[in-house]
Amino acid sequence: MKKLFLLVVMICFAGVVKAQNIQLHYDLGRAMYNSLEGRPWVTTTVEMFKADKWGSTYFFVDMDYTDKGVSSAYWEISRELKFWKAPVSAHVEYNGGLNYINNAFLAGPAYNWNNADFSRVFGVQVLYKYIQKNAKPHNFQLTGTWTMHFCDQKYTFSGFVDFWREKHTDVHGNNHDFIFISEPQFWVNLNKFKHVNDDLNLSVGTEWELSTNFATRNGFYYIPTLAMKWSF
């Protein structure tokens, strides 16, 4: 899950109202934890953001790969409505995927802040979350997002943090009611360096998945990746 709603920062710098990127992640989880020996090595992410006069639309699709092909998929799509001057938007969202991931529907207010040059952007969402077929389907989710550019946009630090309630059982049969996950990303944007063509929209970097009781895991996990990103 990437949830980088703050792609809007790049959009503001570029002077356009839409942006897309494709990411390739080499996942180191199975090398770090014996309990993740079946975890795929490779994940691709496709993201799209588009703003219009009524607000903005965002989605991403994650796909995991083994030597047999695609082993799992997950996607999120959200819509923010804001045709007024207040910094608070109305947010609606859908989450879903393969491999026993229940449909989830979310709605609530979203607050976004940026500094004058959009080099620092932060967002907070307070959401009602309905998880279909869950033993306790009515839940909540708190989300924070950020994007920070450094050194004339040569470097970008971005990501999200989610905390939500969801009744579930881990691989050892322990019951849990809450899940935490954060995925900070750090990117080196090559076309912002001297003597690199402006059209080379390639970034290299890393993502760190930090989670507690996520999916069927028990306790805290730290899973880094090595990554590349091409922006359109």
UniProtKB/TrEMBL annotation:
InterPro entries, from UniProt?
Channel_Tsx-like_sf (IPR036777)
Q: Which UniProt keywords apply?
A: Signal
Q: Which residues form the signal peptide?
A: 1-19
Task: Spell out the SUPFAM superfamilies in the cross-references.
Answer: Tsx-like channel
Protein name, per record? DUF5020 family protein
* Native organism: Phocaeicola acetigenes
